[in-house]
Specification:
928 residues, alpha/beta, Arc Repressor Mutant, subunit A, Serine Threonine Protein Phosphatase 5, Tetratricopeptide repeat, Rossmann fold, five-stranded parallel sheet, three-stranded antiparallel sheet, 42 helices, 14 strands, globular, WH-like_DNA-bd_sf, TPR repeat, AfsR-DnrI-RedD_regulator, transcription regulation
Length: 928
């Protein structure tokens, strides 16, 4: 039976087109509590809290079970099922109007075609039948209603924006007049109403409405309208012709990037003809435009060659996927890391598809909707490698039948086959002929032919297991003068009975134990220690500190391990271990090394990463107040980094390892202090590179560590920097909560410096929320506090911040005075602050019409930013530099500045800023 569910109005269900009586309000609330997370298991505790609130009655669980029992026969095969720990409404998200609404809105925001966006948003809003969850009481239902109310309002505003771009101005006036009257302080609605009035030829009414709005805001809120609204007001006064000539849909939109994420094709691939044919048959069996997406689930034991099979096939059919190929290692069976959260993988896909990290929606459902919208109707290949289970893969499935998905896993992923039509492709051991070809390709036909009996014994012992064959062949190649019979005897003596076992993993361990015995004592020690190192790979200096060896000796050991296929050098001086080999190495570390040796090695590695990260951060942000921590151990040698470029390169290479170390230490309470210290050292890099979700993750871990063992000043720091991080991903309420907590703790302890820092962070948060007046108030408070601390760089920074917010509010005389004072204190001493002050002064000079002075300030700021490697600030100044050039009629110079800004914004994945500057370039072209 097909079921559909309505949450955007009174909670209802229809099964096979007929309405179902869902019973009393609480029973309907149970269904709603599961439907909002359709397709996911909701814990019993969560359902109880949603239905009865934070203090449920004693028999709430029993009553819940009764409600579920009554609902099941009403919904039939719609799938209200019990799962370990909770309940699941096992239906497609599209069967729930709330999810359909969000999917349509995500598609609309992803498309560049306004006509398509208008149709999608119109369809989404048709699903709204009044107040969400109507008739349900309780805090949870009310919170969901409020949340959806905001989403609906945003969709309505998005639709108006689209219609305005399509030229529908006059026919929107009545609708927007009513909405502006109902939301008199909503600046977005007000801006849309002003624009519609202009499009309708009624600019005088637009100016009058702005006057009334400003009077209301000043009287009730004590603040001026925001920057965007004030700029629109000025454009109306200036009779800007662009206000009456809507932009054409998609004009100036750059082409979406085509991701090419496949790792290199495997060398010397042998056999697998049946499996390759099955994959191709699946692709060929679905005609273009068909209704079924091809999903192939490649299953088999670890080390059996699943990934090589997937990559070999993908590279041979890459022409079938002209719109891109996405690849992710889900780490489902990684020995040192937990399985990757699908939202992490999803964010990687969104990055590859060109989505600005700052514009990724925080809600996981919205992220899935955005991803599926971006690949809809495109021919894209998605390779999800090393999956733990079907639940890890489902959010990564496109919704379009034009896409193809390859999934590899050690599990058969039955749920993926039954729930999503995946075609299972089982990978087993190689045939005798294929295995013989592997040895022949590696050892040469003459050597294989010279010792047929020994080759037969090697093949029998390896039993077609690809990794076992690779190890045997590697040993033989490393010792070309050794007879193969000797190798066959060694392998025979090394637990041949296990190699013949039905469990390939056990057989692989036998082969690895044989390979391990070929190592010297030093090589075996390093191999075992590598199993302890968190992260997907490791660089030479980190291995040297882990093993407490000189670089030369470390390189020699790694070369020996690489020769035996125990490690792989994927890029110069960086090594990777297959996850099974790494698990085996970790087992050896616990078996052969003492706890003291293991603890010392991990401590050296953590010190290596922490102190190198700290040194790199000092290069990127030299005037940032440092934190205090112990000196590195005497036998730990952190990297020496020459300049900001080297620091940025090191952070980029080690980012995933640093995140993995942070996760590992989060579970080790004896090293909790290192968690927040690593988070601090990573903060500047993650912010400047736009890895904002990573910043949130490390500071969540850092705050947890600080709460366990941190001093009050550390808790202040953790709350403050987590507050800043969540601001950048749009979680403004959480940001304010953390920053307020930081401020309260700082006031309790009398930490004046921490209070100043926190006020400065609150100012930045307020600015991002569009509250310039509030930002100014916090900046003034920060300045007052810094003045008594004899910290010239921070005082200058705060002076410039005060001036900047005053400039945004139009108080240019005060702004110039503060920014000139900041420049005077910073000049020649604190170059980052000096550059920032010059940038602010350039903005002020331009706003008051002194364009020549603006050019001078901006160019001096650029020189300083470039000299000190501040690539993040450089495009902002280039963007602003273009405006005085244009005002002076120097259009070629303006165009050159803006073209540079666009290139830098795009390189930093700052899509919204890049789009804004491209609009400036388009305007130059139109005027020309």
């Amino acid at each position: 039976m097909a079921a559909v569910f309505t949450l955007l109005g009174e909670v209802t269900a229809h099964v096979d087109g007929r309405p179902v009586d869902l019973g009393p309000a609480r029973q309907r609330c149970v269904l709603a509590a599961l439907a909002v997370d359709a397709g996911q298991v909701v814990s019993v505790e969560r359902v109880v809290e949603r239905v009865w609130g934070a203090e449920p009655p004693r028999r709430a669980r029993a009553t819940l079970h009764s409600y579920v029992s009554r609902l099941r026969p009403l919904l039939g095969t719609a799938g209200l099922v019990r799962r370990p720990g909770g309940y699941l409404l096992d239906v497609d998200e599209a069967a729930v109007d709330l999810h359909r609404f969000r999917e349509l809105c995500a598609q609309a925001r992803a498309t560049a075609a306004d006509e398509h966006a208008e149709a999608l948003l119109t369809e989404a809003l048709r699903l709204c039948h009044g107040e969400a969850l109507a008739g349900l009481g309780g805090d949870w239902a009310q919170a969901e209603r409020d949340r959806f109310g905001g989403e609906r309002s945003a969709a309505e505003c998005d639709l108006v924006d689209v219609r305005l771009r399509l030229g529908q101005g006059g026919n929107l006036v009545a609708e927007l007049s009513a909405r502006a009257a109902g939301c008199p302080l909503d600046e977005r609605v007000a801006a849309q109403y002003l624009l519609a009035l202009c499009r309708a030829g009624r600019p005088t009414e637009a100016l009058e409405h702005y006057r009334r709005l400003r009077t209301l805001m000043v009287g009730e809120l004590g603040t001026e309208p925001g920057t965007a609204l004030r700029q629109l007001h000025q454009r109306i006064i200036d009779d800007d012709p662009a206000l009456t000539a809507p932009a054409r849909s998609g004009e100036g939109t750059p082409p979406a990037p085509v991701p090419r994420q496949l790792p290199p094709a495997p060398p010397r691939f042998t056999g697998r003809s049946d499996e390759l044919a099955a994959l191709t048959a699946g692709l060929d069996g679905t005609a273009p435009g068909g209704r079924t997406m091809v999903i192939s689930a490649i299953a088999g034991a670890g080390g059996i060659g699943k990934t090589w099979l997937a990559l070999h096939w993908a590279h041979h059919h890459v022409d079938r996927f002209p719109d891109g190929q996405l690849f992710v290692d889900l780490q489902g069976f990684s020995p040192t890391a937990t399985p990757m959260d699908p939202t992490t993988a999803l964010r990687g896909f969104l990055d590859a598809l060109g989505v600005d990290p700052r514009s990724v929606p925080p809600d996981p459902h919205a992220q899935v909707g955005l991803y599926r919208s971006l690949v809809a109707d495109k021919r894209v290949l998605v390779v999800a490698d090393n999956a733990r289970n079907a639940e890890q893969v489902v959010p990564l499935l496109p919704g379009s039948p034009t896409c193809t998905v390859l999934v590899t896993s050690r599990h058969r992923l039955t749920g993926l086959a039954t729930g999503h039509g995946a075609r299972p492709v089982r990978v087993d051991v190689l045939s005798d002929a294929e295995a013989r070809q592997v040895l022949g390709d590696r050892l040469g036909a003459e050597r294989v032919a010279a010792e047929p009996d020994a080759v037969a014994e090697l093949l029998r012992c390896c039993n077609g297991f690809p990794l076992a064959l690779a190890i045997v062949a590697g040993r033989a190649c490393a010792n070309p003068g050794f007879p193969l019979a000797g190798l066959a005897d060694e392998l025979h003596d090394a637990r041949l009975d296990v190699l013949d076992d039905d469990n390939p993993t056990a057989g692989l361990r036998a082969v690895l134990s044989w390979s391990h015995r070929a190592l010297t004592a030093e090589q075996a020690r390093v191999f075992a220690l590598l199993g302890l190192a968190p992260g997907p790979d490791i660089g030479l200096p980190a291995v040297a500190d882990l093993a407490d060896l000189p670089d030369t000796a470390t390189r020699s050991v790694l070369r020996a391990l690489e020769d035996l296929h125990l490690v792989q050098q994927r890029s110069p001086a960086r090594w990777h271990m297959h996850d099974l080999i790494k698990l085996y190495a970790a087992d050896l570390a616990h078996q052969d090394l003492s706890e003291r040796e293991r603890d010392g090695a991990l401590s050296r590695l953590v010190d290596h990463y922490l102190h190198t990260a700290h040194a790199a951060d000092r290069l990127l942000h030299p005037h940032r107040p440092p934190i205090r921590f112990d000196e590195p151990r005497s036998n730990c040698r952190p990297r020496h980094l020459a300049d900001t470029g080297a620091a940025l390169d090191w952070f980029t290479a080690e980012r995933h390892n640093l995140l993995a170390v942070t996760r590992r230490l989060s579970d080790d309470h004896s090293r909790s202090v290192r968690v927040w210290q690593l988070a601090w050292a990573l903060d500047t890099f993650l912010y400047r590179q736009g890895h904002l979700h990573d910043a949130v993750a490390v500071w969540r871990a850092g705050l947890a560590a600080a709460d366990r063992h941190g001093t009050p000043d550390v808790r202040v720091l953790a709350h403050r920097l987590l507050g800043a991080a969540v601001t950048y991903v749009g979680l403004h309420d959480e940001a304010v909560a953390h920053l307020s907590k930081a401020l309260a703790l700082a006031e309790e302890t009398g930490d004046v410096l921490a209070r100043a820092h926190t006020h400065r962070s609150l100012a930045q948060t307020a600015e991002r929320q569009g509250h310039e007046q509030r930002a100014l108030e916090h900046a003034v408070r920060a300045l007052d506090l810094y003045r008594g601390l004899d910290l010239p760089a921070l005082e200058a920074l705060a002076l410039n911040a005060v001036g900047w917010y005053e400039a945004l509010l139009g108080d240019y005389d005060r702004a110039r005075a503060h920014c000139e004072a900041a420049l005077d204190r910073a000049q020649g001493r604190h170059h980052e602050v000096e550059a920032a002050a010059l940038d602010s002064l350039g903005y002020i000079a331009h706003r008051i019409g002194d364009h020549t002075a603006a050019l001078d300030h901006y160019q001096r700021a650029l020189t300083l930013f470039r000299a000190h490697g501040d690539a993040y600030s450089e495009p902002d100044t280039l963007d602003r530099l273009g405006h005085p050039y244009r005002s002076l009629g120097q259009t070629d110079q303006a165009r050159h500045a803006w073209q540079q800004a666009v290139q830098l914004y795009e390189a930093q994945h700052r899509g919204e800023e890049a789009r804004r500057v491209r609009d400036h370039l388009d305007e130059l072209d139109r005027r020309a």
